[in-house]
Specification:
This protein is mainly alpha-helical. It has a single domain, classed as Orthogonal Bundle (Non-ribosomal Peptide Synthetase Peptidyl Carrier Protein, Chain A). The chain is about 50% helix and about 5% strand. It contains 4 helices and 2 strands; from the N terminus they run ααβααβ. A two-stranded parallel sheet has the order 1-2. α1 crosses α4. The chain is globular and about 30 Å long. The model has no long low-confidence stretch (mean pLDDT about 85).
Length: about 90
């Protein structure tokens, strides 16, 4: 069975990412900046890998590369994913 991407708005994706990152870092969501590089928020490499896997499951898609490399902050990543999930099931980063 092929994964069918779930259409999500950039706001939904952004909120999902903020909530997950805040939970992992045990901090209030309002302290997670959507404009700062995700890597600067304090996630280690294992947390990042798990986050990407959960994001793939939530969106119903698979990334062909690490999306955090090309879209390093929550704002940029959310916009990219909202645009791409309307048509693709394997998303390039």
């Amino acid at each position: 069975m092929t994964d069918v991407p779930r259409v999500r708005t950039d706001s939904e994706i952004q909120q999902w990412l903020v909530d997950r990152i805040a939970a992992r870092l045990q901090m209030p969501p309002d302290q997670v900046s959507v404009e700062d590089p995700i890597i600067s928020l304090g996630l280690d490499s294992m947390q990042s890998v798990v986050l990407i896997g959960e994001l793939e499951d939530w969106l119903g898609c698979r990334f062909t590369a690490n999306p955090l490399v090309e879209h390093p902050n929550i704002e940029a990543l959310s916009k990219f994913l909202a645009e791409r999930t309307t048509t693709d099931s394997a998303l390039p980063a």
